């Protein structure tokens, strides 16, 4: 006979409910204002780049769902010591990515799409390893969708084009990343 565990059942229900409600009010429970502003700019970048509003919404919604689910897992202490070390390495990689993005933005002619893309792909792989046993295949697909979208060489090239239409969004994203780095959130 299978053992019933109400704690596990509650966690599954919470993840399911929160993934169904990936909207601004839920996001505010888990994501601060600066991060929310960055997400808004990422949406605008995706929308302008793809020309497809629903695809841009899907990418950002997938990102929000993943963030919320990982936050729930952390709140319920679901990660082992080894996974927590991997989470710290993932956070370091995100911090490196943020500093690299800011540097590429602030110093003219330093942008290298291969470097930025590789950081994003390494981050994706670390995150997939972290959540491997905790999230479903569908959630793994969401992680791949988000990271593959933003690691696209053409999107990165347009984003970092000094005369391009995405430049104002990049400026706001980098300003937000700077805030997160300065206050220790990232």
Automatic annotation (TrEMBL):
InterPro entries reported for this sequence: TNFAIP8-like, TNFAIP8_sf
Gene Ontology biological process: innate immune response; regulation of apoptotic process
Organism of provenance: Phoxinus phoxinus (Eurasian minnow)
GO cellular component: cytoplasm
The UniProt record lists the keyword tRNA-binding: no
Acetylation in keyword set: no
Keywords: Immunity, Innate immunity
Family, as annotated: Belongs to the TNFAIP8 family. TNFAIP8L2 subfamily.
Name recorded for this polypeptide: Tumor necrosis factor alpha-induced protein 8-like protein 2
Recorded superkingdom: Eukaryota
């Amino acid at each position: 006979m299978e053992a019933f565990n109400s704690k596990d059942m509650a966690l599954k229900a919470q993840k399911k409910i929160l993934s169904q409600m990936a909207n601004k009010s839920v996001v505010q429970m888990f994501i601060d204002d600066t991060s929310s502003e960055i997400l808004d700019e990422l949406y605008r970048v995706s929308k302008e780049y793809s020309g497809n509003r629903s695809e841009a919404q899907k990418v950002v919604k997938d990102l929000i769902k993943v963030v919320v689910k990982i936050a729930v897992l952390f709140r319920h202490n679901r990660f082992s010591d080894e996974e927590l070390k991997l989470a710290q390495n993932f956070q370091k990689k995100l911090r490196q990515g943020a500093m690299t993005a800011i540097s590429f933005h602030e110093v003219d002619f330093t942008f290298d799409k291969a470097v930025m893309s590789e950081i994003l792909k390494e981050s994706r792989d670390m995150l997939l390893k972290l959540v491997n046993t905790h999230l479903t295949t569908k959630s793994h697909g969401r992680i791949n969708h988000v990271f593959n979208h933003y690691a696209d060489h053409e999107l990165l090239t347009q984003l970092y084009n000094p005369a391009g239409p995405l430049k104002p969004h990049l400026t706001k994203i980098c300003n937000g990343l700077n805030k997160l780095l300065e206050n220790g959130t990232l």
